[in-house]
Amino acid sequence: MVLYYHEFLKNKEIINHELEQPVIIYNPFYTASPAGRARVQALTTPVALGKICFLSGLSRLILVLGAVLYYYSEQIYLPEKDIINVLSTRNNPRKRYRDLKSYFFDLFGCRVYKIQIDAGFTCPNRDGSISLGGCIYCDGRYSRLRQAGPLPSVGEQIAAGRELYRRIRGAKKFIAYFQTASNTYGSFDHLKDLYDEALCQEDVVGMAVGTRPDCVSGDVIDLLQNYVNEGKHIWIEYGLQSAHDLTLRAINRGHDAASFIETVERTEGRGIKICAHIILGLPAESRDDMIKTARFLAELPIDGIKIHLLLALDGTEAGRLYKEGSLPMMTKEDYVSTVADILEVLPPRVVIQRLTADGYSDIFLAPEWGRNKLQVLNAIDAEMERRNTVQGAAFNNHIPDP
Ligand code: SF4
Fold it and tell me: What pLDDT sits at residue 382?
């Protein structure tokens, strides 16, 4: 499959940047001009490459280079604006942790792709119900799609994502991912309409709903359970960020750790998969605090986790604190090592859905190394390899303080 860099840029809103869905780009000699792109495209088709065989020595060299690039085109992961890092998974399909891609493959017998949806939700921590400021790291801009104009319907968003993944990956099954803002923040009927619309789309096998733990009614949990009973694969993603109430107050989260526990307990045992979000590098948190958050989650009936890196984004409170010098950012080495500690603490059953963070490049302030997700993921793999460890190696064990 071929996806040129300019196509990626055009479609990046619906391409899922998550760990389990690396973007595959064939970009031997990206050129912004349509004529240049057409020439590259024409040169790198197998037929054209075959014809070059009968030409000069230089052309033969081009042929060999083209063939190598063509072969590796299925293996190029492209973080936004970074076309130099290449990661091959062909020889190392299994991670040292339970990654989402493998989890879905085991469950469905094929790759399953999450299609991000912005259904127009807001957040009680931004609209004044809890606070107006929001969490200190939240830019409040929601998705690029929303910024671009009126939102397409849920069905239209899924259709666009589905067609893209079918075209670039031959994808067959999809999860509708209600990602933007608090996706249970609305009336029951409104939520049911949106979820029903998502789940009835062609080849959609399930749904993931991201929200706050203090924003889910019993009726909505019952509704999600009904979908499970109908055979759908359903995840709910609760933002915890930290298990420490002091930190939750410092980041203006608007709920405490007890609220998270209570909601997880209301959700468990219904067949709904529970994913927790945490952030590393929050203000005044030590490495030990972060590992304690992982241990806190390890004791709860969660099925998945997303680990984010705290980013300083312009226009956010975190960005302001960073600029005035009062919010230190984690170093890459510290982050990688802490993630490895956390993976060791988490039970092997927990699906690792994300290991770093995204931020809009136009407001990105720090840490600079956080821009390159691929390097971070590779460094985590390398650290796990160096330690010769796996997820769950220290589950229920005491990890000595660093
Ligand atoms: S809960 Fe999410 S959407 Fe709401 S303020 Fe915090 S980060 Fe922003």
Answer: 94
Secondary structure (DSSP) of 186-243 = S-HHHHHHHHHHHHTSTTEEEEEEEE-TTS--HHHHHHHHHHHHTT-EEEEEEEEE-S
Residue nearest ligand 1's atom 2 by CA = 181
pLDDT at residue number 32 = 43
CA of 148 to the centre of ligand 1 (A): 20
The pLDDT score that the predictor gives to residue 95 is 84
Report whether 121 contacts 180 (CB < 8 A): yes
Rounded Cα distance between 312 and 330, Å, is 11
* DSSP 8-state code for residue 153: P
Residue-range domains of the chain with CATH? 5-75 (no CATH), 100-387 (3.20.20.70)
* Ligand 1 centroid distance, CA of 260 (Å): 15
* The two three-digit tokens of residue 192, written as one number: 């049911």
139: Cβ contacts below 8 Å, ≥ 6 apart: 313, 315, 316, 359, 360, 363
Question: What are the E-state strand segments in 118-272?
Answer: 173-178, 204-211, 233-241
Residue at token pair 């940047």: 17
Cα–Cα distance, 163 to 159 (Å, whole number): 6
Please give the DSSP secondary-structure letter assigned to residue 24: B
Q: Taking 50 as the threshold, does the pLDDT of residue 371 lie above it?
A: yes
Global pTM value? 0.79
pLDDT-based confidence at residue 402 (cuts at 50, 70, 90): very low
